[in-house]
Amino acid sequence: MLGDGGAVVRTTTRRWYLIIIDDLWSTCRYLIIIDDLWSTSVWDIIRRAFPDGDCHSRIMTTTQFEDVASACCSYQSIYKFEMEPLKYDQSQRLFFRMVFGSGDKVAFPGCLREVSSEIIQKCGGLPLSMVNIASLLPTEESERNLQQWKDIRDSLPSTLRTNPTSEGMAKVINLIYNNLSPEVKTCLLYFALYPEGYTSNKDDLVKQWITEGFTGEGEEKEDTARGYFDELVSRGMIQAVDINYCGVLSCTLHHMVHDLIMKKSMEGNFVVGVDNFQSLPNKVRRLSVKFGGARSGRIPTGITLYEVRSLAFFGFYGCADFIEECKLLRILILHVWADQDEDPFDLSGITTLLPLRYVKIACNIPIKLPDKIQDLQYLETLEVDATVVAIPSAIRKLSRLASLKIAVRELLRQDICILQALPALSALSLHVWTTPVEMIVFDKGEFLVLKCFKFRCPVPWLKFEAGSMPDLESLNLCFNAHQADQHGIVPIGMEHLSGLKEITAHIWGSDTDVGSTFRSAVSNHPSNPRINLRLVDPIFHGAVTTSVGTIKVEDEKKQAADNKY
């Protein structure tokens, strides 16, 4: 499933996708869904990616624009389906279910029935408007709540029923925005840092909001940030992308919500955005630079970069040389691209940005981390979605580094020694591209405060000594079943991880037998952790093809006992 959403795709990425798709699907039968397509020019690019074969494949698109719909079906109206608004009884069931958790109108409070009917009629049969409006309404029966329902009814545009257009929905979204608390509004406005159509990870947003100070001080600030995120989901202001049993893991914005926050952000100078050459205010606290595929984009002269506290950059790595001028920077988000034959992207210059607390980097070429990275003494989060040339030994001196995500071509014993010396490290994601030459051993008394460990490698050739990672609660393993045969599919010494609450495994190129073997091997763990198991088809680069299950061991044993009778 693909999404357009107005996101800019640079030329080299387009070519890469065309090659990959043509190679994979030239002889396959496929069903492709392209959601929320916005222009015929994007459709012209996408359609060329799929080979013309005789396998009876299908492509389905959704769009709000008549000309796009016609282009997608080669101007043959027989293949075009226009969605109708919901009928009243359908709208009523959806509305009741969203407000009270049940579509049964019998359970609906009597004093609210008349006003609810008027709200439903004003929503004009649009599911999105009903879901969003329902998130505003209190459920207890009282005079005060009845008045709030009436106020919301009166504030809805009357044109939704007769003319269900984007303009009417924009008014509904603005109404919801105005009913958010100031703190939650601030978190929503933060999405203006990112391009339209961007998928944001919940954990990343939580860390960024905390670093920004949106959640205040105290030990509960992470729970507070997660609560803000969940409220934005329940209000319909952000849309879930990835979900598991814990809730929403990542999200994106509907294009109308994105338009709203860009407007509000610009009005309040909350996030200043620059696409290429344009005028900017002199004083900028949060700067979003979206150069896309341009190789010569530059920040306009006159802007005071010294005062920028948060920076998100999307573009060619050669256009990012201004970053070293942002001396008070606390949050740095880099999504950079380069030609594949370029030398590694050297980040040595960021060591002059002493206040840095959060750094997230994604790049299509290797990254060279600074040799003097110890100068960033306030750094709390470092996430690198690229292969690093080497793990600098000085990283062990970052006393505040709590979250680290890193990828290396090969993992050496000295790398483990460097990482285990980090005193505050509570979350570690380690991706190793090649099979280790020897078993990776975690010794007693190391990684003392680590709570979450994700390890991705061709083989899970790990050993946990007694007393290692004593506080570990979550273990996530990603490996290749075929390559793991000679070393086993379960790390040695997992029983020593006494605090383990969750084990997650993504096994590439495997079948259910391998999954069952893994589950059986870990099901007798003394702490009885939850087991999440996914079998992954490598042909589709990570698409989940089979879910073996998410279950607590005690539930599995109970199920086995029930099956006896």
What's the short story on this structure?
By secondary structure, this protein is of the alpha/beta class. 29% of the residues lie in helices and 22% in strands.
Outline the secondary-structure elements:
Layout: E1 2-3, H1 11-25, E2 31-37, H2 40-47, E3 58-63, H3 66-72, H4 88-100, H5 113-122, H6 127-134, H7 143-155, H8 159-162, H9 166-178, H10 182-189, E4 200-201, H11 202-212, H12 221-234, E5 239-244, E6 247-252, H13 255-268, E7 272-274, E8 286-290, E9 310-316, E10 331-337, E11 345-346, E12 358-363, E13 367-368, E14 381-388, E15 403-408, H14 413-419, E16 427-432, E17 440-442, E18 452-456, E19 462-464, E20 474-480, E21 502-508, H15 512-522, E22 530-537, E23 543-552, H16 553-562
Parallel strand pairs: 1-2, 2-3, 7-8, 8-9, 9-10, 10-12, 11-13, 12-14, 14-15, 15-16, 16-18, 17-19, 18-20, 20-21, 21-22
Antiparallel strand pairs: 4-6, 5-6, 22-23
Domain NB-ARC: 26-101
Domain Disease resistance R13L4/SHOC-2-like LRR: 393-531
Pfam families: LRR_14, NB-ARC, WHD_DRP
